Amino acid sequence: MSEPLRFRNARGEWVAVESVPAARLKNEPATVIDRVVAGGAVAITRHDKPRAVLVSYEDFRELAAAREASLGALSQEFDRLLEGMQAPGSRKATTAAFESPGDGIGRNAVKAARPRLQVAAKRVARRARKAGGRR
Fold first, then answer.
1. Angstrom distance (rounded) from CA 59 to CA 36
2. What gap in Å lies between CA 65 and CA 59, rounded to an integer?
3. C-alpha distances out from residue 31 to 27, 42, 52, 58, Å
4. What's residue 28's pLDDT?
5. Among 7, 81, 90, 96, which lies 20 to 30 A Cα-Cα from 62?
6. Alpha carbons within 13 A on the beta-carbon side of 103
7. Measured distance CA(127)–CA(116) in Å, rounded
8. Where are the domains of the chain?
């Protein structure tokens, strides 16, 4: 059996999500809505499978605000990265990359990656030596 649904409501409380068949929502909408308004959430099921969730307007606003905040943060991160790419050094490197022939880009990528690979290889060898000494 699957674990019951739970979520944190607008007041920060963990709330169990009660399951209600779609037929009951159709026949007793006021009862179901009253449960939602009282601080819970209700999963609407069809053939014993959750199909939708009703939450209070307050909880919906909190969820929407949380989503908007993350989009705002992503937008700020994008702007910061874009600004960094437009710095004189980055602009020069981007121009050089676009003007170089295809095989030159590959050669330069390998050249740039080589020091990182060497550092990673040394780290793996060091760990292997330490692990060998513990046995």
1. 10
2. 10
3. 9, 11, 17, 18
4. 94
5. 81
6. 0
7. 17
8. 6-55, 65-99, 101-135
Percent helix, percent strand, percent coil in the chain, to nearest 5:
65, 20, 15
Q: Is 51 exposed, middle or buried (CB count within 10 Å of its CB: 0-12, 13-18, 19+)?
A: exposed
Provide the whole-model pTM: 0.46
What are the pLDDT digits (tens) for 70-90?
Answer: 777 888 888 888 888 788 777
Give me 120's structure tokens: 């990673």
Residue-level pLDDT at 33: 92
Q: Coil, strand, or helix at residue 101? A: coil
Average pLDDT for the chain: 81
> Is 1 a residue whose pLDDT tops 70?
no
8 Å CB contact between 45 and 70: no
Residue carrying the six token digits 């069809």:
46
Residue 105 CB coordination number (10 Å): 13
Q: How many residues does the chain have?
A: 135
